[in-house]
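Appendix C. Worked example: Quinolinate synthase
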Amino acid sequence: MKSNPDHPTPTSRFAGRGHASAWPEARELGYDEGVRARTEHLLERVADVVPQAEWPLHAPLIDAINRLKVERNAVILAHNYMTPEIFHCVGDATGDSLKLAQLAAESDADIIVQAGVHFMAETAKILAPEKTVLVPDLRAGCSLAASITGADVRRIRQAYPAYPIVTYVNTSAEVKAESDICCTSSNAVQVVEAVAGQWGTDTAILIPDEYLAKNVASQTAVRILTWKGACEVHERFTAEEIAQLRSEHPDAMIITHPECPPDVLKAADFAGSTGAMAAFVRDQAPKTAILITECSMSDNVAVENPGTRFIRPCNLCPHMKTISLAGIYESLRRLQFEVNVDPDVARRARSSVQAMLDLPGSEKPPAFDTRRPITAADYVAV
Ligand code: 13P
Ligand code: SF4
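Step 2, the predicted output written as structure tokens:
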């Protein structure tokens, strides 16, 4: 195949089969009667959260993506922070970080398109090394993943050889490879307690999110040491903002994510992973809900909970928002951008992720008790 700057050489096993050229560029797709009819049911689904005026722009891409997925035997894993036209109209499997990792491991598709950020695509590749894993935009990073390197974890290991290192999945494969076990926001307390028990220690190192670590510390007797990383979306919420929202909407349920500072959780009614937040709204069916998290989450949850009114004091994740329908379409059309992990790093990272997935189900609900007192967590000294 000749190299062409407009059509990078496909890196997957589909290279040279001519699939990429069989489909028009995103800008050439039009909104005609066929597209309208094939996407009508999806418009009905998202009509309350996607402006009608935008539909003629979204529908041709949604239609093309859904047909291309079948042709490629591809599956789109969409995180809860994707915009609703992605989440509800092209996502085959949706959820929080833990659920997406489990789905990647179980999928029998040839191609996984990760509608989420780069660390999620790497996790999918680690768990499904035989599959082609694509991320639609290489800018889709994460402030937590950028806060720590594999060399940092090696220095922590040297300084604290007696304590297990629990790494949040929002990290690079290299960081996972240096760790003992991974966790997500839906199982962090369970993982810390299990691994401290296995190692026979009273202390676990939970990196790199200092707020998640402090919030875990308030839920467990295990002493937690941590790192000074933070999520740039959740660190910006403040307890004063929550108090203000509470006084303006006294009947609303305030639901937070554990990447928020501890005093934000303390001021809320519920805290948990994005999956646990969505389940809480579904199960409690509050009249009014306030989700203290990324902006698209309320839109996606609102679609499934028409009886709840959402107040939306959100922060955008600039990394998640690099993922668009046009990017997903180009990703499937050109088989770009393929995510690969060095086999030795992947093998060691897999053992950390798999150790998390292999833990037995917990009796504890995947939620943080916001009534518990705030507990200190020290930083590792390296
Ligand atoms: P969860 O979906 O696992 O709660 O993670 C939230 C997040 O910030 C992902 O980047
Ligand atoms: Fe990273 Fe926060 Fe964005 Fe999630 S929301 S990808 S943790 S910066």
